[in-house]
Amino acid sequence: MVEAVALTRSLVKSQQIGDAELTLDQRREELLQQYRSRPLVFLERYQACLKPQHLAAFAHLSSDPRAQHYSRVIQRRAAGRTDRTRVRNQRYAALRALQKDGQYFSEEQMRMREPLLYEQYIGQYLTDEEVLERSQEAMLGAQGGARDPEGGGGLAHLLLDSYQERLIQNRLEEEQEREECAREEDEDEEDNDDRAKEEWETTPEEKALLREEFISQMHQRFLDGKDKDFNYSEVDENPDYDNLDIVSRDAEEKYFDDDDDEEEDEMDKDVQEEEEERDEKMTE
Question: Which candidate among 180, 228, 242, 284 keeps its CA 20 to 30 Å from the CA of 142?
Fold first, then answer.
């Protein structure tokens, strides 16, 4: 328990400006002394750094209402983090499943969901030939759909594809207008950026990198729950995604490393807020 607090950025002892920073051993010693002399104050001061497994050290205070309160706070916080981790894991499993089967993460489907993001990373750098090729591929995809012997199904798909393209263009124009309004204060700088873009011709390698970045951002939006039309309850509440063996070891380790970093940042934020509250009380 003392070690867990000592390794955080929490302030353990008031110091004057110019004093040398406490070493890890000194932090351990100071924390241990605080715990032994005033365990309830220790619990209140450092509860943001503690986890449920540390609560056994305060079992002798279980009858105190304040100790009960902070114990519940620690347990609720840990339960919330566990639930968030579980949800992220399930969404990651769903993402890999959607990549493997279906069209959800096809370029055309992602373009439909986020036309402005697509335009910024891919669309504006396409040549006329590439735009024509994209349209032809969409038409071929529509013709390859289910159709009746008369070919009516193919025509219906073509009409639907044309309608969807108009929707994409309308949404793109709306998002571009909103973005333009948000940037009115930086009009001069924006003009300079536009001129620089006109002069910049992307290489095939740069286009590939931009495409990868677009796909990465779309994946992250999915994991963050930002795909408005996706029913996340079918994933977050689906136990089938708990045991999908579709995540490679390297990807899994990177994913959990990012998860740990996020939890550490949250803990540091909690610690800072606790210290600010204590400072306000002392000032009063």
Answer: 228
